[in-house]
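Please decode residue identities from the backbone states below.
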């Protein structure tokens, strides 16, 4: 009894709590933190189904995404109550989300007009190729000065354009001014603040900067970019800072999360920006790498955007208050990291669980010359090559599933090495260590491999939920909430584990990396939408005069030889 009373009195001393909705590509989570200590008190996670209607298409159901948020909030509130923690101590909620994923819904009915087109989706490849071919010099960086981004299938503008061109419901809703566009953050905030009954239609600067419609210098939607993609500005959400009160939660009293009604949603960051904040990378030059569905290396470059000469993106890192300056980041984006584990499990069936991959790979400790380039959605940074496709090479009769498992882990590390090299070249200053986070960092073999391949230490925080932590920090620090201090002296010291390189950097590591680069070249230009010969060029063999003469001459010689043979037999 005394123990129970002691636990109860401890809980009363917790002080203000801040929650975060972390809506990722493969799962949704709701997490609750102590605003004074940054301790994670409780959380719940729900997996999200992905559908692949056609080759290269990736979709998710917006209603399922929303329902998963409600489920996670309900279950977490239930767990808090069981822990004797008062849910009413939650003073703010932050939102962090998979970026670029594109939704359109009807503001009158609140219904989605199509599935969410996920950031990995490739259906817009032909649109992208046409846009690039129309630019002066066929330059994929034509819009980079304004957006910081290349023209790519990755970003929201081309996905929205596809929806307007190919989905009748979307086309009609745009014409009748009923359509609302948003990335996942906008959809969730709109729904959670009332939806069709007064929901707030907004996004933050970090998510807006991933659309190709946002000017990273003016920090607002760009009329010229909207004209370029022929997208009406009226369907776009209002752009806000990453830390301010957007609106108040409206939750049904029937739900266990009903007590959250009236709590402000006051933080919003795209998942990679949230991880940068959660890793406390507030100084120019600090960087982190997140291993999730994809892999994303971000480096804080301060209050002035830096353009990359080596295939990296320039993006908005955060703007922590309406009157605070925006900070920018250089970003290296890799499409497939954790997704390769899911592919080995769901598509090939060579593992039953994600944890099994580490054991399989550890059994052999080498790929035995097997290299795996998982370019399922083309190659992102530093190549930006949508025509690339996945390739496994260097196979022998000796190769088995353990070697393939090892090669899959190495692929994640090699892709990180490529973007780190690009970042070092752009900044002229080499990173001395790499801060990491994300679901895959629980794989200790992967972390050691990463240190070996980068030839620098890899530092993993003991609390891995840095993305959600970043969203909670932004929410708790917002004006009008102010329960979380972001002053450097008040930030909690993060405990971490360090993985040191263990192989000879000049020999084995460089040899393996060189072979990987060779494999990447093999994966290039695999799937092109445009025919090799465009226009009215004659594609017949006779379009080459010498070749035509040669083939015709050979045919006549064969006919003549048959005729002579026939005469002799007669």
């Amino acid at each position: 009894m005394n123990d129970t009373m002691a636990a109860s009195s401890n809980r009363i001393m917790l002080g203000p709590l801040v929650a975060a909705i972390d809506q990722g590509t493969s799962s949704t989570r709701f997490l609750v933190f102590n605003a004074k200590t940054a301790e994670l008190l409780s959380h719940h996670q729900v997996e999200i189904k992905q559908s692949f209607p056609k080759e290269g298409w990736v979709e998710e159901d917006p209603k399922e995404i929303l329902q998963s948020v409600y489920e996670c909030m309900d279950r977490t509130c239930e767990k808090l109550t069981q822990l004797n923690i008062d849910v009413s101590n939650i003073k703010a909620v932050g939102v962090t989300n998979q970026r670029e994923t594109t939704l359109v819904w009807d503001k009158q009915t609140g219904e989605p007009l199509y599935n969410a087109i996920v950031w990995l989706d490739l259906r817009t490849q032909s649109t992208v190729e046409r846009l690039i071919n129309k630019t002066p010099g066929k330059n994929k960086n034509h819009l980079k000065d304004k957006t910081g981004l290349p023209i790519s299938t990755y970003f929201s503008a081309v996905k929205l354009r596809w929806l307007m061109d190919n989905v009748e419901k979307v086309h009609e809703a745009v014409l009748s001014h009923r359509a609302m566009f948003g990335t996942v953050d906008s959809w969730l905030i709109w729904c959670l603040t009332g939806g069709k009954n007064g929901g707030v239609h907004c996004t933050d600067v970090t998510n807006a900067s991933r659309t190709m419609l946002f000017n990273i210098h003016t920090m607002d939607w760009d009329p010229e970019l909207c004209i370029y993609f022929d997208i009406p500005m009226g369907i776009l959400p209002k752009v806000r800072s990453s830390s301010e009160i957007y609106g108040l939660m409206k939750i049904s009293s029937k739900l266990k999360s009903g007590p959250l009604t009236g709590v402000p949603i006051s933080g919003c960051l795209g998942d990679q920006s949230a991880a940068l904040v959660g890793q406390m990378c507030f100084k120019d030059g600090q960087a982190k790498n997140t291993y999730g569905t994809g892999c994303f290396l971000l480096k804080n470059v301060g209050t002035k955007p830096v353009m990359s000469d080596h295939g990296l993106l320039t993006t908005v890192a955060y703007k922590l208050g309406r009157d605070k300056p925006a900070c920018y980041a250089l970003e290296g984006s890799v499409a497939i990291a954790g997704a390769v584990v899911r592919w080995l499990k769901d598509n090939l069936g060579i593992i039953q669980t994600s944890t099994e991959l580490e054991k399989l790979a550890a059994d052999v400790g080498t790929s035995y010359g097997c290299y795996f380039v998982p370019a399922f959605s083309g190659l992102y940074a530093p190549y930006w090559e949508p025509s690339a496709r996945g390739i496994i090479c260097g196979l022998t009769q000796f190769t088995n599933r353990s070697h393939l498992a090892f090669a899959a882990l190495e692929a994640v590390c090699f892709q990180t090495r490529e973007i780190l090299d690009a970042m070092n070249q752009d900044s002229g200053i080499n990173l001395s260590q790499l801060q990491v986070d994300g679901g895959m960092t629980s794989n200790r073999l992967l972390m050691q491999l990463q240190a070996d391949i980068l030839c620098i230490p890899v530092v993993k925080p003991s609390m891995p939920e840095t993305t959600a932590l970043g969203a909670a920090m932004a929410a708790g620090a917002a004006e009008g909430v102010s329960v979380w201090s972001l002053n450097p002296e008040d930030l909690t010291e993060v405990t971490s584990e360090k993985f040191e390189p263990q192989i000879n950097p000049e020999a084995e590591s460089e040899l393996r990396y060189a072979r990987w680069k060779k494999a990447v070249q093999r994966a290039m230009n695999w799937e092109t939408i445009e025919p090799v010969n465009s226009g009215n060029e004659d594609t017949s063999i006779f379009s080459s005069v010498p070749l035509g003469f040669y083939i015709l001459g050979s045919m006549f010689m064969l006919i003549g030889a048959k005729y002579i043979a026939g005469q002799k037999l007669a």
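Observation: The longest strand covers residues 27-34.
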